[in-house]
Amino acid sequence: MRRSIEPTGNRASTVLGRKLGGELLRLRDAAGKTQQQAAASINATGTKIVKMERGWVPMRDPDIRVLCEFYGVEDRKVVGRLLELAKLDRERRKAKGWWQDTPHPGTLSEYIALEDAASRVRTWELSLIPGLFQTAEYARSLAVSEGVGVWEDPDEIEHLVEIRMRRQGRLHEERPLQVYAVIWEAALRQLIGGPDVMRTQLERLLEVAQLPNVRLQVLPFHVGGHPCITGPFTIISFAETEAVDVVHADTIASTVWVENEAEGAAYSTFFDRTARLSLAQHDSALLINAIRQEM
User: Fold this and answer.
1) Distance from CA of residue 281 to its chain's centroid?
2) How far apart are CA 228 and CA 277, in angstroms?
3) CA-CA distance, 187 to 288, in Å (whole number)?
4) Do 153 and 136 form a contact (C-beta atoms < 8 A)?
5) How far apart are CA 52 and CA 50, in angstroms?
6) What is the dihedral of CA 180, 198, 248, 207, to 10 degrees?
7) Which pLDDT belongs to residue 190?
C-alpha cells in the first residue's frame, strides 16, 4: 500500500489502522462479499465498512470477529493477528505526544509519532545529515535554506530546531532507539551553513557513531551506481510483532508512505545492498574525520 500524502492534518494514528483495513479488504474480496453485505453482518452502514477498510476509524473487537466469521476465516491465528493490530491501533490513537504541537503538523507529526514508538530505524540519506544526528546550527541553516514558502517565520524555524533536538533524546533513553544510518559522501561535503557549521556537524557525527545503539556507514563516491541512488528513505520498525515496517520517503511535492510487507521488504533489500557497498564503520569514521579536517 503506497500512499502519497499531503499535509492535511495529524494522521499519526492511522498507519496501523490502514494496515488492518487493508487486511479486512483482502479477506472480503477473497470471500466474494460486497461492502453492503459486510455492513449488514455487523448491523452497520456501508459507509462504516469504507471507513474501516481505509483505516479511518478505530475498530471494535466484536466487529472484527463477526466480519472474520462472515468472510469464512477459521484460522484463529489470523483472527488473533487482526485483533492484535486493532488493539495496537487503538492504543496509538489515544497517545498524546509532544510532537502534536509541531508547526505545519501533517506528515511531520505522523513521522515523529512513529519514530517515537519505533524500536529501530534504518535511514538512507543522499545529501543531508539524518535529523537524529543534526546539530542545532545545521538544522537551523537547513530550515532557512528550505524556507521559501515553507519555513519563513523565525519563530517557526526555532520551534522546528527545538523539535529536532528533542527527537534526539531517543538515542539516550534507557531503551534507546536503534539507528542504522547509511549516508552518501555528498551529505558530508555539502556546505549547509558554511564550513564552521559543517565542521561542528561532522564532529557530532563522530560522537554519535560511538553510541552502542548507532551504526553509521558512509557510501563513498568511488562506488558509483548503487541500488538506492533514486532518493532517500527511512524504514521504521516496531517492537510489536504484528506491526509491519513502515517506509517514509519525502519527495519535492509530497510524502510517500509504504505500508505493505512486500514493498517494505524491497526497501530493506535495497538498503542492505547499499550498506554492503559502503565503508565499514571504522573506515567511515576515518573518512568523516578527514573531511572534517579539510574544513
Assistant:
1) 24
2) 11
3) 10
4) no
5) 5
6) 20
7) 93
DSSP string covering 85-99: HHHHHHHHHH---GG
pLDDT tens, 111-164? 887 788 789 999 999 999 999 999 999 999 988 765 444 556 778 788 888 888
Grid cell digits, residue 287: 573518512
CATH number of 98-135+168-294: 3.30.870.10
Q: What single DSSP character describes residue 168?
A: G
Contact status, residue 19 vs residue 88, Cβ threshold 8 Å: no
Query: Rounded to 10 degrees, what is the CA torsion of 94, 100, 105, 109?
Result: -60
pTM for this entry: 0.73
Q: Do domains 10-94 and 98-135+168-294 have the same CATH topology?
A: no
Residues 6+ apart with CB under 8 A from 132: 121, 123, 167, 168, 170, 171, 177, 179, 181, 208
Q: How many CA atoms lie within 13 A of 275 on its CB side?
A: 16
CATH-assigned architecture of domain 10-94: Orthogonal Bundle (1.10)
DSSP category for residue 246: E
**DSSP structure class, residue 214:** E
**Would you put residue 121 in left (φ > 0), alpha (ψ -120 to 50) or beta?**
beta
